[in-house]
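Lecture notes, structural biology module. Today: joint structure prediction for complexes of two components.
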Amino acid sequence: MLHLSGGSPRTRGHLVSAADLTRDDAVLILDTAEEMARVADRPIKKLPTLRGRTVVNLFFEDSTRTRISFEAAAQRLSADVINFSAKGSSVSKGESLKDTALTLEAMGADAVVIRHHDSGAPHRLATSGWINGSVVNAGDGTHEHPTQALLDAFTLRRRLVGPDAGLGQDLSGRRVTIVGDVLHSRVARSNVHLLHTLGAEVTLVAPPTLVPIGVEHWPCEVSYDLDAVLPKSDAVMMLRVQRERMNAAFFPTEREYARRYGLDGERMARMPEDAVVMHPGPMNRGMEITAEVADSARCTAVEQVANGVSIRMAVLYLLLGGSESAVTNYRTEESK
Amino acid sequence: MKTLIRGAQILGGEPQDVLIDGETVAAVGTGLDAAGAQVIEADGKILLPGLVDLHTHLREPGREDSETVLTGTRAAAAGGYTAVHAMANTFPVADTAGVVEQVWRLGKESGYCDVQPVGAVTVGLEGKKLAELGAMHDSAAGVRVFSDDGKCVDDAVIMRRALEYVKAFDGVVAQHAQEPRLTEGAQMNEGVVSAELGLGGWPAVAEESIIARDVLLAAHVGSRLHVCHLSTAGSVEIVRWAKSKGWHVTAEVTPHHLLLTDELVRSYNPVYKVNPPLRTEADVMALRAALADGTIDCVATDHAPHPHEDKDCEWGAAAMGMVGLETALSVVQHTMVDTGLLDWAGVADRMSFAPARIGRLAGHGRPVAPGEPANLTLVDSAYRGPVDPAGFASRSRNTPYEGRELPGRVTHTFLRGRATVVDGKLT
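The predicted structure, tokenised, for the full assembly:
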């Protein structure tokens, strides 16, 4: 079992918040994901580790990308996968989270991967006593998205340190800049926690309207000036910015946002040579990122998707699989 | 029917006997004759005037699944209250003489506690059109406190007119101060904790800006303004300033805002979801100091019962509010008396005299003296014990204090001489 030693005892055995992970927890997940990534390079991409275990993808919010990533991860570990989409189900007819959870519990879910529009819903599911299985937060409201932060850290370590050289390593001293709608971003929250835990220096860049009140207590710097920060960044993470935000006066127009906070080729050229551009997707081309940047070799957006499967395999494995090394397990099965 | 309360410390003073004859206090003194009277030994106990709540949600009509006038007044009596003001946000809204008279009549029938209905300021609490304030005042319910509580009268012109209009019958407008645009999607106090939890922020300025506007309006038209459930240090400063000008502004604070902070929201347990939200430690300390120095006039429970399913869910889907009638006095003892900020005479003022005065409620909030109505509450202040919601008289259990050890227990409550609580049990 993955014991989240740094987190609240109440959420142990679950992955609810990146803040619950210690440095050693996080490095273990990244190292395990590295082992999982090697499996993806084999002709048969499947491990027997979670055979007979059931993973439920409980999605109250549409997110095909995240759901299929978790689905692929669970299937590669030979788990049975049940997809429970709130749309078109009893949930849309007013069934409560509690009754849905009790139903899944009765069906014998070993892990529940939950995506929910309300911040805290996974925490509630993990601590309410409604289910016994492990809860994995796949994004809750504007709170957290811990597996996204893990796959981002994994991508960074691979790019900045190397797949093999990175094993056992954290991100000490690496400078990561996160740009965009921090206020509404669960990706930013999880990344600030995790990158800080892994020793990276994080700077948030956004218009002041999109930075939360209280951010001064976060373990990071805040800047309103993208151009000042770019030359000092080993990685720049562009967050998706919804165009509708301008209707609530967070910024005047889409064009002004793109001019001040968007990443184009000219700005990218001011970044250090080896620096990478990240994006959790889906991208708003022309808004926070231009096509030139999105399609450049520096942009890791597609790698991030591939790495997401490895990270989610690692998380499910560590939560459900046991304490043995995934690879040892794999080789044992292979030699049979 | 006579009752002799022997050796009680009236408002925390020296032990005295109090003789109740019929509906009134007949005598106060030492060594009173017990002949023909039922005797209650009250050694070491505190005797207070019956508590008065300016802010209670009794939910009837409309949400009888969470509370009724009967269950709510039983909860009130158990908490030491002899009068409560029933808020207007019922279904239908208490915005006509008919509805306020219904609530008033249900209160009469309950017999546990006087129920003084509060009338809505605007039709349907919609903030657009004044309700028939005069008709509600002239009705049998005799409404003098008007509030759209739950919603803010945010239109400055409507607020001004309401303040002016109720002067004709010495009414008061009790404002739920919440600027609606600044609190769209608000789920908790905006600050360090909301930033981390990713819950929509309810900024202090949304309360303070409305209070600032309202005290100026009240001054301009020379009316009485009452501010509901003050929750921030900044609100305290504004009310203090308004009072220093001599304007007729009064304010209340809830027990939970005197004790709990937004740090509790980290559990995402909706039992801590309330409006206005739990604030910070600095706010709590400012509210206590303001209640002690009289800037805040009174404690009001904002007793807000909700059915279990409305709290047994994710934070965003949960209802706002906490029950409070049965724990209010304990929380006030814990936060104000045991800390040395207020003595029992101060408690009597903040929980009985002042709210009765603000509500212009006859027969309540009176001194414990011969000839006065026998509305009395006897408190065992030495008691300590955990809060057990299973023992509540309220129909709802949404208390934030479950399992928390709190001091003080109401052992007896008298409503016009009749015991509604005896030895901690409802009659």
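Point to remember: The interface with chain A takes residues 187, 190-201, 203, 267-269, 309, 312-317 of chain B (CB under 8 Å).
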